[in-house]
Amino acid sequence: MIALNNSKTWKFSSYLIALVLMVPVLVMLVGGISASTQLFAHLWQTVLPTYLENTLLLAFGVVMLALIFGVFSAALITQTNIVFKKQLRWLLLLPLAMPAYLVAYLYTDLFDYAGPVQRSLRSWFGWQSPNDYWFFDIRTLPGAALMLALVLFPYIYMLTRGAFEQQDQNLIRASRLLGLTAKQSFFKVALPLARPAIAVAASLVLMETLADFATVQYFAVNTLTTAIYDTWLGYGDLGAANALASVLMLLVLFVVLAEQRSRAGLRHQSARPNLSRELIQLSFSQQVIGSIFCWALVIFGFLLPISLLIVMAVQYSDVAQLSVLISTGINSLKISVIAATVAVLIALSLGLYQRLHSDKFRHIPHHISGFGYAVPGTVLAMAMLSTLGPLDHWLNDLAELLGFSPPGLILSGSIFAIIFALVVRFSAIANGTIVSAIKQIPQSLDYAPASLGVNLTGSLTRVHLPILTPAILVAWLLVFVEAMKELPAVLLLRPFNFETLSSQIYQLISDEMLEQGALGAIMIVLFGLLPIVLLNKSKEKV
């Protein structure tokens, strides 16, 4: 039977792919552990406590703010009768397309002392200097937490909204029969039932926060990610950078384990839940307040930043900038297309192996290949350098030994390192999309081709791949967009004279010259909108 295929070649290649994707992380961890024995005492006595404190405070602040924004907005959209809920239902997803470092720069430019807001206030009230009035400083740790929360809360909103919408309303009605009001039923029944989904979403927000580099770097908030970057490039100490990366990896591992533990106690509802709900009827003033809260998230998380970018693009763009933008855009497209294609091919191979092979442990390669998504881009870049650098030196030594000209840094000094890092980082996205689609294929379609004398290759090309085509396209697009937006790994691994849209915009932000890259920033945002449109359409079909 085809469903019990026992190809040794397929088995070997699946485990080899998973191992290759894990090797850089393992090399980095080993290097960090060995380095930490010599450097940790010095790091702990100097900077590590501050880095850890800032990292934990930032993570706590972002998660708390994102929970407030995401859970409240999801509850208002699914449980109440607020005005404009049909429009807000999908508009609240838009901030996810906006990179946090862009929002950070735009709001700094808007609210800084020399920005239009404070200039207007001084003009209106006749203030002459900062001593005449108080104004909040956005370039602080709380400011960084707010910027990150504004673009990350849609993770919590999306998953929490889905959890609320899929809840069995018979449970809510039972609580009402026991004497609870509509609001009491929400807090005592609906919200606890959604807790596993909220925990998953919070873990995603936490991992994205730990992985952030550009926002905290621009705001001068020293976290473990900025410390890794500064230690390696500023001080040239790869061992210390590996040690700090190992600490960050331990934090990420703790988050992953905590998230899995939170899902361990998940209780499934009935197979056919009653989804017809009775909305909590708010008064007109309550509806207005709830609607204003949701609109504020949409405006400050997306509409205002994109409007500022459009104004900059109109005022400052010229032909010379457009030519540079086209060049960097081609570079971004090149690495993103290759990374997305490779990631989808790997996901297809491992997903079908998990479905169709007889190996008792056939699920292991799939799980291992998805671990890279939990690795921050800065750490992943260190892992690539720790792996590919020595391999390049070995290849050069081998070439000299054989009498050939040394090829140079063909792995660590080329776009190969960037593409490899992107594949390791985003294979989990392709895996999740394709495996979900594979699970929806009836088991009978695995056996039917074999009963008609069709071999494995024929079954894959004539049955499975045509069915999986929509999922393949979605997975490719999701990885492509994430690769276009990725900054830390690209910033650390890019070859000389090679820029992408994300790295170029970051350099312009660092030089306080985002106006010259506003058009490129708009392109990144527009690419980021593509998966949001797909997510919204898929949710509407459910």
Shape: globular
What's the helix-strand series?
HHHHHHHHHHHHHHHHHHHHHH
Briefly note the structural class of the backbone: mainly alpha
Average pLDDT number? 80
What is the count of DSSP helices, taking H or I runs of 4+ residues?
22
Family: Belongs to the binding-protein-dependent transport system permease family.
Membrane topology: Multi-pass membrane protein
InterPro entries: MetI-like (IPR000515), MetI-like_sf (IPR035906)
Organism: Colwellia marinimaniae
Write up this protein.
By secondary structure, this protein is an all-alpha fold. It has 22 helices and no strands. Helix 1 (8-46) crosses helix 12 and helix 4 packs across helix 6 (141-165). The longest helix is centred in the N-terminal third of the chain and has 39 residues, at 8-46. It comes from Colwellia marinimaniae. This is Iron ABC transporter permease. It is a multi-pass membrane protein. The chain crosses the membrane at residues 12-35, 55-78, 90-108, 133-157, 197-220, 240-258, 292-315, 335-356, 368-389, 409-430, 465-484, 517-535. It is found in: Cell membrane.
Any chance you could write out the topology, listing elements then pairs?
Layout lengths: L7 H39 L1 H32 L5 H7 L8 H12 L4 H10 L15 H25 L3 H9 L4 H12 L1 H17 L2 H5 L5 H11 L3 H27 L19 H33 L2 H38 L7 H6 L7 H25 L13 H25 L4 H8 L4 H30 L2 H6 L7 H10 L7 H24 L1
Helix pairs in contact: 1-12, 1-14, 1-16, 2-6, 2-9, 4-6, 4-13, 6-9, 7-8, 9-12, 11-12, 12-16, 13-22, 14-17, 14-19, 16-17, 17-19, 18-19, 19-22
Pfam families: BPD_transp_1
Membrane topology: Multi-pass membrane protein
Organism: Colwellia marinimaniae
